[in-house]
Amino acid sequence: MIAAGRAGAAAARSIAEACRAVLLTTDPIEKAFAARAVARRWRQSGLDHRFDVVMPDDPPRPDQPELLPPNRMPKRGRAGSERSRLAMLHALAHIEYVAIDLAFDCAGRFGAAMPREFVDGWLGVGADEAMHFVLLDRRLRALGSHYGALPAHAGLWEAAGKTRDDLTARLAVVPMALEARGLDVTPMTVARFEAAGDARSARILTRIYTDEIRHVAVGTRWFEFCCANDGQPPAERWQSLISRQFRDIVKPPFNDSARAQAGLTLDYYGTLAALTSSGQTSSRREREGQNSTSG
Ligand SMILES: [Fe+2]
Ligand SMILES: [Fe+2]
């Protein structure tokens, strides 16, 4: 029986036991510290490259925040008011909390069939996500709130559940679609915080943004590794995996330069984008047509 938290992480002998200990930790700060401790032990060769326990399919969650389906989440506004900025930071903290689990699940669930560097990559990502969580929770506390004070999105673990038997699908969806979507929207969020005079939060989000480019790159690297092993063209494989269940995650506007830095080139999402943006372009033309008529 593996304990959770930092004690569980310290008692683990294998990488799988250590990842499982992180996933079983509910308390957010404890999870973040356990994650950092496991990543450190792995870097210092303190854990065996052995996959002797399974990862929990549905990691336990703390009592707070209350998890709500997306359609019951309160509207959070556009970072103009302090309330909407708190709601935004809280939503981001929740994403990072779940991202810790996504990284350690990826290493512990799929690592056995992969080279050692695969675990190196995902534990590095997991350590980053833990730091992101701590930075956001600290910022929330400085603003008189904390992680858990507001409801949070219940659906973030869904992508993990739907791809728990298929590493290629997991990589296509989690880093290469969900995290890549983060790259598309974060510059605008940073600008909103700056416009509202909240430079501290803007700096935290900028740091997260830089790290997330690396996370998408780790995902793309291993996705292409899997495709090469299976003799499949990566862009086509990605499109077919995304079109099946996750088509709505991939939508413009895209941050092409951040995506390109992460190795996620237009040949991946260009065709999917063209389908969506041709619809957008025609509706924009209609709007512009209306404007010019009225002008
Ligand atoms: Fe993150
Ligand atoms: Fe990330």
UniProtKB/TrEMBL annotation:
Stretches with biased composition (Basic and acidic residues): 51-64
Disordered as annotated region, ranges: 51-80
Organism in which the protein naturally occurs: Sphingomonas oryzagri
Record protein name field: Ferritin-like domain-containing protein
Domain of life the protein comes from: Bacteria
One Pfam short name: DUF455
